[in-house]
Amino acid sequence: MKKILSIMIISAMSLGTVMGQEPNPFFTEWNTPFQTPPFNQIKNEHYLPAFMEGMKQQIEEINALVSNPAPPTFENTILAYDTSGDLLEKTGLVFYALNSANTSGEMQNIAKKISPLTTKHNDDINLNPLLFARVKSVYEQRERLTLDPDQKRLVEETYKGFVRGGANLDSTQKAKLRDLNKKINLLQLTFGQNLLFETNAFRLIIDKKENLAGLPEQSVAVAAEFAKGDSTTFGKWTFTLQNPSIIPFLQYSSVRPLREAIFKAYINRGNNNNDKDNKAIVAKLILFRLEKAKLMGYPTFADFVLDDRMAKKPENVYKLLDQVWAPAIAKAKEETAGLQSMMSKKDKSLTLEAWDWRFYSEKIMKQRFGLNEETLRPYFLLDNVRDGAFYVANKLYGITFTEIKDAPKYFPDMTLWECKDEDGSLLGVLYLDFHPRASKRGGAWTGSYRHQSYKNGKRVTPIMSIVCNFSSPTSDKPSLLSPDETETFFHEFGHALAGLFRNVTYNGLSNVPRDFVELPSQIMEHWVFEPDVMKVYAKHYQTGEVIPKELIDKIVLSRNYGQGFKTTEYLAAAYLDMNFHTLKEASNLNVLKFEQESLDKIGLIPQIYPRYRSTYFQHSMTGGYTAGYYGYIWAEVLDADAYQAFKETGDIFNKTVATKFRKSILEKAGSKEAMDLYMDFRGSQPKIDALLKNRGLK
219 and 154 in one domain? Predict the structure, then answer.
């Protein structure tokens, strides 16, 4: 079903200049390179009027559809609905993208105003009985109509979307659903805003050089640059909870009490009993989601969510998690013993804690493999990593990327790239926004300012965006990435390729199940540390020297070290997400007690925390991966098997396999059931063996 951006009419608004104000750029065609958003013209006051007018236009389109005296057909009902709401989508894509990547207090207030309005508008369409009656009529005739496979799929997906939106409920149930949707959406928004505040609120300020012991020169330089921005910390060093700051600190700081302090600040975000505390929000979210699921006829919220995913049922998710958990926790315990042994050599009275893990793990990496992350950074210059991803895409698909210099930007250091297909035709454009700032939420993600679509038989090219929080440049050094950051960029670039290659006729076929959407991103990770790829992009930022073969060999040899930690911290979060959303009773939920019971049940060792605790579990609590965080490991079964299709040919750039992957999966999006798409590519269903082998768990 087409995603609806929902807004309520507040008042009528003309499309031109209002009372002497500047023209609203959302009401005009964008005269920019590739019709990218005119960020230099868009102001906060433009959003609400544009949302309102976009909603008004879509309601008019829906009303015209419903009042059509002709019998319902694919064209006058399904297609008419699928193509409605252009202005609303145009506005929403820009607003929500910037609210994540470059927000402000004013934008967050606008988001809170919009949330209940969008929810109501969405429900007004989903619960419109006349509209649903027409959709249902076409659905019931679908076998008798002359429909091609895409049209039939769109009919079925549109009908299913309305049913899952509550169209079959009675009037009392519909009123209850509206209330729950309003509450859930506002809570999700508040959770994210609280988390951003809590992440930005903490500062570890160091004023003595001896407390910088062990830290890499790059981390110290970045901390000094950050401290310059505040007169109270000028001349000191400021470390934050952003990953490029906290991760190196935990890996290298020799001052254990400071490692403990910053680690505890990180794991207690949203759990500080202040006005940004998220515990009560989580409890309400779990309760309201469960109530919604029961209203829709499902025993748990996970059952409701998974019914529309590859996994289908919670037991299938738990089966996969359990299969990986057993060897992963065994490996993690082995790693724990090794770390404790190294720690005891320094001081027998010390016991390994969670804030010691990365510090001693880094020492073992150096001892066992002769490898230190900081010795690798000079070979991972950000621009070279980017060009390395472009190189892989060119080798696989023949596409090229060229920077566009004169496009508007919302932040000075972002860039825009034109992507052309092998035949020279335009595939789309791609924004890159790499470095952390207070106005950007944490993590890395791929989004879109315009989805691929067709209008009047012509392909409308997508405008994609990759947003990250990578190590920043300093006054004397460019941005040098860690291996993990390098892998993250290739991951997000895989998402971007899926958006650029997408070639579906109908908007309603653009949606990909959450547990399939990570396949295009995760398969790209397989090329990152392939020796033939590293020789192309991994060059010393000062000398231009290609990374030595002995370093490549060490990287390859060490790839499986630490997988016990990495796998268990991820799986623990996936279990936590599922456990919350398989509850059948959620009244008076004690969030932290439930969290601890969930972790105790699977036997998570105290030296490892879940990747996300409940109060900062943005994937789960803000709606993106609710009852869906398992999707990364689910998709890893697919990507590990899919990469074997390349390896089996003896050529990791095999054009025949790459073309088949593009045509069968990347271009198709939601035009078929996900497993059918995978079978079209691979010819058989994947097995878990390749995943376990890749992680060194088998």
Answer: no
Catalytic residue IDs: 492
Largest CA distance in the chain: 84
For residue 281, count other CB atoms closer than 10 A to its CB: 21
Range of the domain at 252: 202-267
Q: 572-623 pLDDT, tens per residue?
A: 999 999 999 999 999 999 999 999 999 999 999 999 999 999 999 999 999 9
Residue in the structure block whose two tokens are 């989601």: 289
> How do residues 144-180 score in pLDDT, each as one tens digit?
999 999 999 999 999 999 999 999 999 999 999 999 9
Number of domains present in the structure of the chain: 2
**CATH code, domain carrying 77:** 1.20.1050.40
- Integer CA distances (angstroms), 371 to 367, 557, 694, in order: 8, 10, 20
Record the tokens describing residue 134, joined without a space: 């027409």
How far apart are the C-alpha atoms of 188 and 195, rounded to whole Å? 11
Q: 610: which 2 tokens?
A: 């879940």
207-211, long-range: CB < 8 A, 24+ apart: 207/236, 207/237, 211/255, 211/258
Question: From the DSSP assignment, how many helices (H) and strands (E) are in the chain?
Answer: 27, 9
The structure tokens 């932040």 sit at: 411
Structural domain includes residue 46? yes
The tokens for 445 are 């993600």
